[in-house]
Structures are given as C-alpha cells and as structure tokens.
Amino acid sequence: MSSPMRIRAKVEGDVADVRVLMSHEMETGQRKASDGKLVPAWFIQDVTAALNGKTVMTAQWGPAVSKNPYLQFKVKGAKAGDKITVTWKDNKGESRTDEAAIA
Amino acid sequence: MRKQIVRSVFLAAGLGLMAGGALAQKTETEKGIDRYRELIADGNPAELWEMQGQELWKKKAGPNQVSLEKCDLGLGAGVVKGAFVSLPRYFADTGKVMDLEGRLAHCMKTIQGIEPKVSTYNRDDHKNIVALVTWIAAESKGMPVNVPQNHPEEKRVYEVGKRAFFYRAGPYDFACATCHAEDNKRIRLQGLPNLLKKEPAGSAYTSWPAYRVSNGELWPMNKRLEDCFRQQRFPELKFSSELSVALSMYMGVNGNGVASLAPTIKR
C-alpha cells in the first residue's frame, strides 16, 4: 500500500498553481542490490490530473524521474474550492489517487 | 631601499587583489549553492514523512492498542509544539537525559507495548520513529532552540558531549572538533559549521531531520551523528546511546536561541 500524495493548490486570478509530492521508489532497473542482482524497475508511468473530474493534464513518465517526485503545474479556469485530483499508475500496475481542494 | 619599499607595496597590493578575488569567488559559489537550496526547498519530500508522522502519532498501535498522544516529550503529556527545540532534556520518570528519538522509542515501549527495533537505521520501527520525529520537528519550525541546562544531570551530559566532541581517536586521530571547531571550513562544497558558535551550531542542530536528495532518505539526528562517526572510522554510534545524546546536547545548548529550521533538505 503506497503512501498518500501531498497536494497543494492555490488560485491566483483564474490560474491555479498545483504542487504535488508523490511517495514512490522510482527504481530505474539499472541498479544492483548487495547480492549482485538487478533491482527490478519500478517507476510511475502515467500521471493524470483532473479539475472537478475533467482531465486537464496527462503525462508519461519514465525511470529518469527522481525518487519521491515533485510535480508542479498550472491550471487555467480554476476557482477556489474546486477539486484537483491526481492519479499515478506505475509499471507494476499499482496506482494511487489523491485529491485536494484549491485554496 | 626606496625601490624595495615601492616593490613591496606593489606586492602587498597584488596579494590583496588575489585574496579579494578568491573571497569574491567563494561567495559566488556559496550564492550558487544557496540558490540551489532555495530551488529544491519548495516541495521538500520531508513533507511526506511529516504526513506519516502526524498520522502515526494519533494511530492506535501495539499490543496495548493506544496512540502516542499521551507521550510526554518534556513539556507535558501530548504537548508536541516546542518539544523538538527543547530536547534533549532530563526526564524524571526514567532518571535519564533523553533525546527526541530515544524518548519516542521509550513511549512506544511504555505506552503502546511495542519493543521497538531501532538497531538498524531506516528499517522497521525506526522508520516510524523517523516519521514521527519529522512531524514533531516541523511543529517547532521557527521557534528558538531552548535546550535546558537546569538539572545537574543535563549539565553533566553537556560536559560528556563536550569531551566527546574534542576527543581524538581512531586510525585517523580524528575528533569532531577537527572539522567543526573553525570558521569557513568545508569538504568539497559542503560547508562545515563551526559548532562552537551559536549561529552555526543552532542551524546545524535544527537542520536534522533532513531529506537527503542523494539517497532519497530522511535522516534524523542520530543517523547524522552515526555517519559522522563512520566517517571518522570510529566504532558504530548506537541509536540514542548516552554518547549520541551527549553530542546532541552539546550541539543544542551551543545553538540555544537560534530559530529552528527542521525539517530541511540536503544534497
């Protein structure tokens, strides 16, 4: 079971600035463990952000993204109180969705 | 004679310029490092640990199925705000000076009935302690360091810390003081705080727990000190041992009055 994301969203004018911290190992599949065997790749592949249920951004990520990734983006046409939902899905098929209200 | 004087004046001026140049360059480098720190500080993954820690504090756990909310961190049962900046301190119930991590392990044991496995850093129960420490530290952000020196035992532990700080040993004949008792020392680009002075000691003391970008782990004070010992090729510093607490206390008291920074982000 993965840990929750931390999502903060603040609106200025009609643009919301969304900042997301995700908790993920983001293993590249290139590293070796102490027993000499490769640590299997394990990273976030798809990221989706939605504003009040309507998808506003999708991203495809790879192993080059750091551990515990930080994502920042802006959404036009957002108001305070709107719901921002962020979902990630990794290469093991595991996924997580968290939401926050725009301040 | 006169010519010689003129020449030496020129020489002095030239040296002055060189020294000035070197100084200016260093501050540029330092500015660059500060800029980098500023950029990564927004979105410090330590916040993920904070969230976890806050939940762990309220979560019922262990054989007794109770939360840690009754844990006394020195300011009364359940008081979290300000606890981080006033530890280590003497606890009458154990008759010992304890640091935050050790006190949490004690609370887990006495309140929740968990026998915490803390011997391996960043595993098992120690992971929970790290998360708790991060949240508790964040609750004191900006508050001045106020490590007490009232009880005789607190004074004694401070003296032990001082002795340990200056104690030269190991294959390198090293002491903490070798690196941390002078201004403007660094290893590569890492500034080494002079822990004898208030400002650097206070900010160093409250720089941990910190998120380490290089390994994606969160390091509390005990882990930081343990790694200092490893770098000096000393025997392993045991989690929250008397020596570890004493060094924490020495650093904390030296930094009394400085506003707390934790949790921070480090390279």
SSE blueprint and pairings:
The complex is a heterodimer of chains A (103) and B (267).
Chain A: E1 6-12, E2 15-21, E3 44-51, E4 54-60, E5 70-76, E6 83-90, E7 95-101
Antiparallel strand pairs in A: 1-2, 2-5, 3-4, 3-6, 6-7
Chain B: H1 2-41, H2 46-58, E1 89-91, E2 96-98, H3 100-112, H4 124-138, H5 152-166, H6 176-180, E3 185-187, E4 190-192, H7 198-205, E5 210-212, E6 217-219, H8 221-231, H9 242-254, E7 264-266
Parallel strand pairs in B: 5-7
Antiparallel strand pairs in B: 1-2, 3-4, 5-6
Helix pairs in contact in B: 2-4, 3-4, 5-9, 7-9, 8-9
Architecture overview:
The complex is a heterodimer of chains A (103) and B (267). Chain A has 103 residues and is an all-beta fold. Chain A has one domain: Immunoglobulin-like (Sandwich). Helices cover 0% and strands 50% of the residues of chain A. Chain A is built from no helices and seven strands. Chain A has strands at residues 6-12, 15-21, 44-51, 54-60, 70-76, 83-90, 95-101. In chain A, the strands form two sheets. In chain A, strands 4-3-6-7 form a four-stranded antiparallel beta sheet, with no helix packed on it. In chain A, strands 1-2-5 form a three-stranded antiparallel beta sheet, with no helix packed on it. Chain A is elongated and about 55 Å long. The mean pLDDT of chain A is 92. Chain B is mainly alpha-helical. Helix content of chain B is 50%, strand content 8%. Chain B has nine helices and seven strands. In chain B, strand 3 and strand 4 (190-192) form a beta hairpin. In chain B, helix 2 crosses helix 4 (124-138), helix 5 (152-166) crosses helix 9 and helix 7 packs across helix 9 (242-254). The termini of chain B are far apart. In chain B, 36% of the residues are buried. The model of chain B is unreliable at 5-24 (pLDDT under 50). Chain A binds chain B through residues 3-4, 6, 19, 21, 23, 66-68, 70, 72, and chain B through 42-43, 45, 47-48, 51-52, 211, 213, 216.
